[in-house]
Each structure stands twice: as C-alpha cells, then as structure tokens.
Design a protein that fits this description.
- The protein is built from 4 helices and 3 strands, in the order H-H-E-E-E-H-H.
- The chain is an alpha+beta fold and 116 residues long.
- Strands 1-3-2 form a 3-stranded mixed sheet, with helices on both faces.
- It is globular and about 35 Å long.
- The two termini are 16 Å apart.
C-alpha cells in the first residue's frame, strides 16, 4: 500500500539499499514469468500499491538498476538518470492492452496469494 505522503528523492531511490527502498515505500517486488531477453520488467501502479515485476535470471546489477528505475518512475521521482541506450521504457498507463492487463492482474493475484 502506498503510504508515503512525500515523493522520495532521487538520492534516496538511487542510493538507499534496495531492500530498504522497497520496505520504506511499501513496494511489492515480484519475479515475472516473462523471460523474453528484451523484457526488462514493469511497474504496475494502483491507488493502493506499486508492484515492480522483474524477469528472473538477470544479473544483480541489471536487477538492481531496473528495480530502482521502475520504482522511481512509479513514484514520479524527478531527476532520475537516464537508462543506457540499450533499454527502452514504454509508458502504457493510458493505453494498456488486454494482454498486458491480464498479465498484471495475474502478477497481483500471485503476489496476494491467489486472492483476486
């Protein structure tokens, strides 16, 4: 549940230990079932929670960087450093197709222990 009344600073997002960042911002960090090499993860934001889902079997550096970037994006943190050119972020907030909506709903069900 999002309970942080103030947007986190870019310094906090980039420098805090990842577990502290996740705990303090009440982010659910989930492992995605999507293993496509071009998939880097997604953040699913509702009024009550932020779920960041990352693909399995990525390097610790990629996992850490993408988690921080997606968390920062979900909280609309100003001043996030750009990702390397090899990464492309697509903002699907206004145009989520049914396939992605179903994947996000399934991720939420999995995180919540099967409760829809």
């Amino acid at each position: 549940m999002i309970t942080t009344p103030v947007k986190p600073s870019v310094d906090f997002v980039m420098d805090a230990p990842l577990q502290q960042l996740v705990d303090e911002l009440h982010v659910i960090l989930d492992e995605s079932s999507i293993t496509d090499p071009g998939f880097t993860g997604y953040a699913y934001v509702t009024r009550d929670e932020v779920v960041v889902s990352l693909p399995p079997n990525r390097s610790e550096l990629e996992h850490d960087c993408m988690a921080r970037y997606l968390i920062g994006s979900a909280f609309k943190v100003d001043g996030l450093p750009p990702l390397p050119d090899m990464y492309e972020i697509t903002d699907m907030t206004a145009d989520v197709n049914d396939g992605h909506r179903n994947q996000a709903d399934e991720a939420l069900r999995r995180v919540r222990g099967g409760v829809a």
